[in-house]
Design brief:
Layout lengths: L1 H26 L19 H4 L10 E17 L2 E3 L3 E16 L4 E14 L4 E4 L2 E11 L2 E16 L2 E17 L4 E14 L2 E2 L2 E2 L5 E15 L1
Antiparallel strand pairs: 1-2, 1-3, 1-12, 3-4, 4-5, 4-6, 5-7, 6-7, 7-8, 8-9, 9-12, 10-11
Length: about 220
């Protein structure tokens, strides 16, 4: 009898202890979670930290606006080097470009710009380059390095002289991806402008002019 009574008391105590544990668990807040071992309090869930800069895909696009300076370098007239008469600081350039990615690295796009410079005689020279571009982008962490080439047309104006020519350009840029939508950086380029003047519909080779102009710009790029 005593053994049976002791067993009943022991079972009652176990049930009471188990019920107390269940009630304690029910009293805990609904959203209480156990902290993860990797949770150090940093904002790892934010868009900025979650962004992976090398994850470009087909269809990604950018719009870039650039503002900077141009520096005429070497000019050729009829096959001979001809000193230019531009006055340093030589001038400025403003441009807008669109880029469409065909994959993680390859891209195509277009650009339009407006550049001006002044000669030693304070006469203004204007050019509006409009071209198509193709290039390849390298990515290292948050840094992006597009390399591209451009071919296009370049309406030009100097005093009463106007010319509708072509241009070629090679360029390189370095950007820092500030967040998923914006990157900022520096661009440098080298442009070649060709002039083949005509007189009465006939080309005059001795008047051919080929100008080489370097440029440096600060650029902001919007990603979408």
């Amino acid at each position: 009898m005593r053994k049976a009574l002791a067993l009943i008391i022991l079972l009652a105590l176990c049930c009471f202890a188990g019920r107390g544990a269940i009630l304690h668990a029910q009293d805990a807040p609904y959203d209480e979670t156990i902290p993860d071992d990797d949770d150090d309090g940093s904002q790892t869930g934010s868009d900025l930290d979650a962004y992976i800069p090398d994850m470009y895909a087909k269809g990604d696009q950018t719009i870039t606006i650039s503002l900077g300076a141009i520096f005429p370098t070497v000019f050729f007239n009829n096959g001979r080097v001809k000193p230019h008469n531009f006055n340093p600081p030589v001038g400025g350039v403003l441009s807008l470009a669109y880029t469409h990615f065909l994959g993680p690295n390859l891209f195509l796009g277009g650009e339009v710009g407006f550049a001006s410079a002044y000669t030693l005689g304070q006469n203004a020279f204007f050019v509006i380059p409009i071209g198509v571009r193709a290039g390849w982008q390298f990515v290292f962490r948050r840094f992006e390095f597009p390399l591209y080439a451009v071919i296009g047309i370049a309406p030009q104006k100097y005093l009463d002289f106007g010319y509708f020519g072509m241009y070629l350009k090679g360029a390189a840029s370095a950007y820092y991806r500030f967040n998923p939508n914006w990157s900022f950086g520096l661009s440098a380029d080298w442009s070649w402008y060709a002039q083949w003047p005509l007189e009465n519909g006939v080309r005059i080779p001795r008047k051919d002019m080929f100008g080489n102009i370097a440029g440096v710009q600060l650029s902001a790029r919007y990603h979408f």
